[in-house]
Amino acid sequence: MAPPAQSQRSQSPSQPSGKSEVSDLKLQLRQLAGSRAPGVDDSKRELFKKVISYMTIGIDVSSLFGEMVMCSATSDIVLKKMCYLYVGNYAKVNPDLALLTINFLQRDCHDEDPMIRGLALRSLCSLRVANLVEYLVGPLGSGLKDSNSYVRMVAVVGVLKLYHISASTCVDADFPSMLKHLMLNDSDTQIVANCLSALQEIWSAEASTSEEASREREALISKPFIYYLLNRIKEFSEWAQCLVLELVTKYVPSDSSEIFDIMNLLEDRLQHANGAVVLATVKVFLQLTLSMTDVHQQVYERIKAPLLTLVSSGSPEQSYAVLSHLHLLVMRAPYVFSSDYKHFYCQYNEPSYVKRLKLEMLTAVANESNTYEIVTELCEYAANVDIPIARESIRAVGKIALQQYDVNAIVDRLLQFLEMEKDYVTAEALVLVKDLLRKYPQWSHDCIAVVGNISSNNVQEPKAKAALIWMLGEYSQDMQDAPYILESLVENWDEEHSAEVRLHLLTAVMKCFFKRPPETQSALGAALAAGIGDFHQDVHDRALFYYRILRYNVYVAERVVNPPKQAVSVFADTQSSEIKDRIFDEFNSLSVLYQKPSYMFTDKEHRGPLEFADELGNLSIVEAADNVVSSQRVEENDKDLLLTTVEKEETRGSSNNGSAYTVPYDSSASVFASQTQIEPAISNPTTAGHSQQAIFGIDDLLGLGMPAVPDVPSPPQLKLNTKAALDPSAFQQKWRQLPVALSQELSLSPQAVAALTVPQALLRHMQSHSIHCIASGGQSPNFKFFFFAQKYEEPLNYLVECIINTSSAKAQVKIKADDQSTSQAFSTLFESALSKFGTP
């Protein structure tokens, strides 16, 4: 006899085996619906739990809707809650089922038990079905007048839900006036807070269309109402206190006596156990005293102790939030916190994000009186097992040194770091020593003595290697082996993957050549030859520039590359004072944690209102703002932006159709940088007379072995159509079909980066060069633009994708063209136009 067939997959005991399981539940619920036998509620609970569990894991049990509603006719609150949960879930996706629940929910809104009345009213308002709003008005009106505070509280929130479903129904029913009456007269502070929150949202939304709503919104920050809330603030919950305090920050007192009255009323809030309440109170104190300099400074002294207490007494997350606000205050008034620097010492068990913020605090509060103690503490962190924190601590030591506090002791500490046998410590110390030498050249003898003992083979990090090479070039006259170390680096040129290191190496060899020419001659020739053939655009341009200026006049080259140096007095701040003030205005918000104003991470203007599915796949056309472009222009969402503009070396290797530069005489090469830099020297009549023999002598001296070739006449310049027009859909189609003709990375001047704070300025500038923008998007530091241009009197289009990163001052450019043979000429025009952006 054959064994019985077995199911291939066993059913989970928590899931129904099929439709029969749901049918069984339906039958059992129907049997219990009209039963009044003892213990029937317990049986209903078990069935309800099964239904809710099935619903939670995604099984469709909507067929039980009728039976669930019938079984809800009970006084058991637990059953009511589960039934309301079930009803609310399926009412959203099936409005027809929601209509069936109206009767029993309205009936429960008049139940004797206030808990059931409140639950029913909340469920009724949570249905959020537009065609059922007429059924909400009556229960909400009754709920706002209910004798029980819980029901009134639910009704207030229900009014706000109704407003979002149908604003006109809410206003026509005069619910805002009822909320205002409750807010001013109700004895329950939670209801007052709910009314305040709801009215702020409603009147703010209505203010643009209703003068009455605008007046009511202004009345919320009037003196009588503010004092009414402040006198009752101790009765409010923590959430409600924060709401009230945020409202108080918008109030403008009439005189200084009012300011002191408000601060006296809120004095004890600074001692509150809840950090949110303390921060909200601190914001009130700071905002009220902005115009009173002396009092404002006293406020810093007063709020210091509560904030420091919160840092040490809360969770790491709370500590980080409070520390972020303290950091903002320290940047504005470091002297106030200079005596409390020990509060910012790192604890061994703190998370790295807290330690990193504390290191920034220690850097900010350092002054003449505490520098020794702070630097001593930071040096201990350099041996931390947490390598990122060790790096940050070394950088903090360097930042303090650049602030001119106890430089002698700090330089000694940094030189000790160079002697530590840890690669990351040596790397960070080298970068800092370079900055110190730029500001304190008098320390060069001591520093170079130690740096000269460091082998370049032991330094692998690009920034550290670049710093070492800079010192080898800058102080080559004091370092005996500098030319030979540079020569060995040039010999390994192809093994160096960092463009930054190759750029520094070119400059260092040039500087060394002018100080020790016989020992550096061959190294310079090899470096220029390697640089001219480099696939990286910046490296190629710099090598070509050095070669041409050497051919022109060696003495001019020395003045350009190795001029008399002046000590750097101030290093650039990474954040403008305007942005810092904006963040301070948004105290006690996410802006402080992100260290950027809210408009940078919330406004649609900075997120990009339009979305691209695939490059220009879903272009939506909008009119060009301020008549920037004659054609139509669109904006682009950040989802399509490349957040990193530094591409992989393999990608860069495909620049210019994969061909590397080999000779400096190629008339098609992109050399606008070298041309623009060499023009001032050539225009000098006193140095213009040089023979061809001197020019060719440089080639022979450097061992480049390049033949003396007369200058090739430049081809006729490409002329563009000033009134070009291109439909976005046509642009989109061409962009997908055409191959990339050129791909390169360009450098932006500091003036261009500064001008990009208003991206429209770039669009106007490029249009003045007959290059039009058809799409743009992004936010600082990443911007993306799509340009197009047309050849004069010919139907040939040039399409450009330009991705700009203002942090690195780099632009990644891709060019596509109908006529590939003219793409290089257009590239030269585009580069020339971009190089002039930001110049007067």
UniProtKB/TrEMBL annotation:
Q: Which InterPro entries match?
A: AP_beta, AP_complex_bsu_1_2_4, ARM-like, ARM-type_fold, B-adaptin_app_sub_C, Clathrin/coatomer_adapt-like_N, Coatomer/calthrin_app_sub_C, TBP_dom_sf
Q: Where in the cell is it found?
A: Endomembrane system
GO biological process, any: intracellular protein transport
Record-level GO cellular component terms:
clathrin adaptor complex; endomembrane system
List the biased-composition ranges (Low complexity): 1-17
Alphabetically sorted, this entry's keywords are: Membrane, Protein transport, Transport
Annotated stretches, region: Disordered? 1-23
Q: Which GO terms describe its molecular function?
A: clathrin binding
Q: Where is the Beta-adaptin appendage C-terminal subdomain domain?
A: 718-835
Gene3D superfamilies named in the record: Leucine-rich Repeat Variant (1.25.10.10), TATA-Binding Protein (3.30.310.10)
Q: Subunit info?
A: Adaptor protein complexes are heterotetramers composed of two large adaptins (beta-type subunit and alpha-type or delta-type or epsilon-type or gamma-type subunit), a medium adaptin (mu-type subunit) and a small adaptin (sigma-type subunit).
Q: Could you say which protein family the record assigns here? A: Belongs to the adaptor complexes large subunit family.
Q: What does this protein do?
A: Subunit of clathrin-associated adaptor protein complex that plays a role in protein sorting in the late-Golgi/trans-Golgi network (TGN) and/or endosomes. The AP complexes mediate both the recruitment of clathrin to membranes and the recognition of sorting signals within the cytosolic tails of transmembrane cargo molecules.
Q: What is this protein called?
A: Beta-adaptin-like protein
Classification from the root reads:
Eukaryota, Viridiplantae, Streptophyta, Embryophyta, Tracheophyta
